[in-house]
Design goal:
Blueprint: H1 3-11, H2 13-28, H3 45-54, H4 60-73, H5 77-82, H6 85-92, H7 99-113, H8 122-126, H9 133-144, H10 153-162, H11 173-183, H12 189-201, H13 221-225, E1 242-252, E2 255-260, E3 271-272, E4 295-303, E5 308-317, E6 327-330, H14 341-357
Helix pairs in contact: 2-12, 3-4, 3-9, 9-12, 10-11, 10-12
This protein binds a DNA duplex through residues 51-63, 94-100, 103, 129-135, 138, 150, 152-155, 170, 193-194, 196-197, 200-201, 206-208, 237-238, 265-268, 280, 302-306, 340-342.
DNA sequence: AAAGCGTGGCG
DNA sequence: TCGCCAAGCTT
């Protein structure tokens, strides 16, 4: 226990913080599709879990249409468990971190195998694929009313400011956890967690916190110090390399050749164009998958988490059949192939070139 | 336990 | 413009 949270406990303001935050939440909670609407039934574990997985490292705005689409197409965990994994991957295309989609299906199937009910506590949830410490705590608190200490980037930011925790992340994790535990209420822990999220997305933003709108400003040591935006302190990040690579548009009779990437690793399990072997650690070889009269068709820039890629698009019209597994996909329907954004950009480029030719 | 893993928005 | 950042998990 660090000095600041000890002080809070000693002064008894920990419960005051929770009360003020919950009062603020009752007044200002965002209306989100995965939350209970006034007068409507509670969302239920399936929708809570689905939303939490989609929201991992992903903004509310990006998640919203995907959540609507998934819940309309697969209304229950049993329906999702019965779905074809490839179709789920395609439906996830564009949302990123595709291991989440694979784990989503695996998790749904485990839940379906236990009769369709999620474990109702943190420890049980934590054992399911794709559910880590954060998601287990969030689902336990929000869907099952458990007292759980829910810690995400919002909570880390709010708590590090509230208590002016100067140790850099990730080292400060344990201190942040103790402080978050100290202010988490026994009742309404789920609302408390969501209130922290709303606080982090509203008043207590990363860049320019609006302390005048914050219900906790009177309790905030970071603000009292004069510069709350300096929290949380973070360790410096490594520079990311820029890699060069190619991908190959092979067209025959109005269809383009698509492959499926290996199940693990970059864009794992997703449909893709053949490429020349580029990856985070190395440029591509430049070698096309088959010989022919290849034409350069421009390049796309794309940033990944740990490297940037300059991807050159090469095109070929042929009557040959590429070696290996793949499928001919109608060019006119390429928008429905479920391509991850990198290759969707390449497809857009290819289509724009065709327009110019015509 | 540090590194791999997407994407889009924002100041 | 571009670096930073987001309701993290896995190995």
């Amino acid at each position: 226990m660090d000095a600041s949270s000890t002080t809070v406990l000693a002064t008894g303001s920990a419960t005051g913080i929770a009360r003020r935050l919950l009062d603020w939440y009752d007044e200002h909670a965002r209306d989100l599709p995965w939350r209970a609407r006034p007068g409507a039934a509670a969302p239920g574990p399936y929708r809570v879990w689905l939303s939490e997985v989609m929201l991992q490292q992903t903004t509310v705005q990006a998640v919203r249409p995907y959540f609507e689409h998934f819940t309309a197409r697969w209304p229950t965990v049993e329906a999702l468990a019965a779905a074809d994994e490839g179709e789920v991957m395609a439906a996830w295309a564009g949302l990123g971190y595709y291991a989440r989609a694979r784990n989503l299906v695996a998790c749904a199937r485990e839940v379906a195998a236990r009769g369709g009910s999620f474990p109702d506590n943190e420890d049980g949830l934590r054992k399911l694929p794709g559910i880590g410490a954060y998601t287990a705590a969030a689902v336990a608190a929000i869907a099952f009313g458990r007292r759980a200490v829910v810690i995400d980037a919002n909570v880390e930011r709010v708590v590090s400011r509230l208590f002016a925790i100067s140790d850099p992340l990730p080292g400060a994790r344990s201190a942040i956890r103790e402080a978050a535990d100290a202010i988490t209420p026994d009742e309404r822990a789920g609302d408390f967690a969501q209130a922290m999220m709303d606080l982090g997305s509203g008043p207590c933003t990363a860049r320019d916190p609006a302390c005048l709108l914050c219900p906790l400003s009177q309790h905030c040591a970071g603000r009292a110090e004069g510069d709350p935006a300096r929290f949380p302190v973070k360790a410096p990040k490594r520079a990311k390399p820029v890699r060069q690579g190619r991908c190959f548009w092979i067209e025959r009779d109005g269809a383009v050749w698509l492959v499926r990437r290996p199940g693990k690793g970059m864009l794992g399990g997703m449909r893709a164009f053949p490429d020349d072997g580029w990856h985070a650690g190395e440029d591509g070889s430049g070698e096309p998958p088959l010989p022919g009269d290849w034409q350069p068709a421009g390049r796309v820039q794309h940033g990944f988490t740990h490297f940037a890629l300059e991807l050159a698009l090469m095109t070929l019209h042929t009557r040959a059949q590429p070696e290996g597994d793949g499928e001919w996909w109608p060019v006119a329907d390429i928008g429905n192939a479920g391509l991850p954004t990198l290759f969707a950009k390449a497809a857009r480029l290819a289509l724009s070139q065709r327009e110019e030719m015509a």
